[in-house]
Amino acid sequence: MPVEASPWSVSKNWHRLVNATPTVRGMKLLDERLQMILQDSPAMRERSYDALAYEWEHRHRWAWPDPWEDRPTDRTPLWRPGQYVDALDRIGVWGPALIVGEDLRPTPVFNSSFSRYRRQYKVRFLGWSKVYDEWVPPRKIARLAARTLNPRGKFSSLARGHKSWVLYLDKMRGWRVDSIEVTDVSGNKKTINHGAGSVTLTAGQVDDCMRATSDACTFLTLTHRSFAPRAGDLRLRIQK
Fold it and tell me: Is 62 helix (H, G, I), strand (E, B) or coil?
């Protein structure tokens, strides 16, 4: 009669094998390096950890949804706290955000002194401090990467018709949080307006000068952090 392995031993062996894979080991090593950076005093931190920011985005691309085209983006009328979404801010630019609250809030009825209670969501934009939290209605929320840069398909996710926040590498000013807008699509090239002008890029060039906005990449990439989150506020992963 064969000896049956207990579920615990199978689970423990499986856990050991998974932890030994290069992918998991690499992600653990990256997290350890990031935690060491966060423990340093601000005066000891370098101004930019560009290689670490690239590695973080590369290893955490799975947290974004698969790129898709010609699909409805706003089928879900009700969102919930804890979801990562795209949100439209007060100046009309889309950015990836975390829903941190929901409430029925009074909304003025047009051309009337009355108010109507409607559902709104409090969002915290990734890469920005809590000062920039906003309450937004459902119409200003879309699924994650529907309106913003998707690391799993950066070039295809750049679409016309709206502005979005990205980390953009300016040759003169370095990495900065910047709003971009696609103004022209011609074959395998796209013309993009940004804060310092416009540029025409191919799919191979986008990865060199753009990153999706996230707390970790903003903290690691920016050469100035006047509006970036404090170390204690950082969420080092985006989780679905």
Answer: helix
Q: What fold does the segment set 84-143 form as a domain?
A: SH3 type barrels. (2.30.30)
Q: What type of residue sits at position 84?
A: Y
Angle at 57 between CA 56 and CA 60, to 5 degrees: 80
Q: Give the integer Cα–Cα distance in Å for 42 and 32.
A: 18
Its pTM surpasses 0.85: no
> Residues for the chain: how many in total?
240
d(CA 125, CA 50): 21
Element (H, E) at 23: helix 22-39
* Residue with the two structure tokens 């974004």: 64
Residue environment code for 48-71, b if the CB has 16+ CB neighbours within 10 A, otherwise e: ebbebbbbbbeebeebbeeeeeee
Whether 68 contacts 124, CB under 8 Å: no
Among residues 220, 221, 127, 219, which one has the least CA distance to residue 168?
221
- Domain spanning 62-69+146-232, CATH class: mainly beta
Mean pLDDT in consecutive groups of 10 residues from the start of the chain, 240 residues: 46 78 87 82 71 88 76 64 94 96 80 75 91 93 93 92 92 86 93 91 92 86 57 43
